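Journal club prep — side note

Before the paper discussion, L.F. wants everyone to see what a predicted structure for a comparable chain looks like in C-alpha cell form. Sequence:
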Amino acid sequence: MEDGRLAQLVARSQALTRRLFGRTMRLFAPLYLSSECINNCRYCGFSRDNPILRVTLSPDEVEAEARYLVAQGFRNILLVSGEHPRFVSNDYLQEVVRKLVSFVPSVSLEVAPMEMEDYRPLVSAGAEGLVVYQETYDRRAYVAVHTAGPKRDFDWRLEPPERAYAAGFRRIGVAPLFG
C-alpha cells in the first residue's frame, strides 16, 4: 500500500473513532482468577510446565477483590485467567460474572477462546466485553513460542472476536502485545 493511501486510511479511521466515541479512553483493572493453564508458552509465567504455586480464586474471593477495586474507583474490571477448563469452567465464569454485575458497572473477560454457544451464557450472566491478547500475528513465530496446548492453534486464537460478536458481547477488544 502506498504511503499516501495509508495516511488517508489512518486519518479516516481517526475521524470515525472520534465521531463515534469522542476523545475518551476506556481503562480497566485486571482481576486474575487463576494461574492454572494447560498451555506451554515460552514467554508466560503461567505456562503449564513452570513449577509455580497454582491458585484459583473462589467466586467469593473474586467478589472481595472486585469490591476492593471498585472502592478504589475502578468501574471496568477485566477478568483474566490462565487457560484450564477444569479450574476455569464456563459455569465458574458465569457464577463470577453474576456476582460482580450487581456492583461493577462493566465486566469483561480475557479467558480461553470458546465456541460462540459457550460465550452466550456469559453474555446472559452480564459480561459485556471480551478482550483477546495476541502475542504475534506471524504464524511461524506463533508456533515457535506456543509449544503445547490448545493455544498452539493459531486460527482458533484469531477467531474469538467474530464468535464473541455473534454471541452478543457489546465490547470486543483485540490487543496485540508488542515488545
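L.F.'s comment for the group: The first strand starts at residue 29 and ends at 34. Keep this in mind when we get to the figures.
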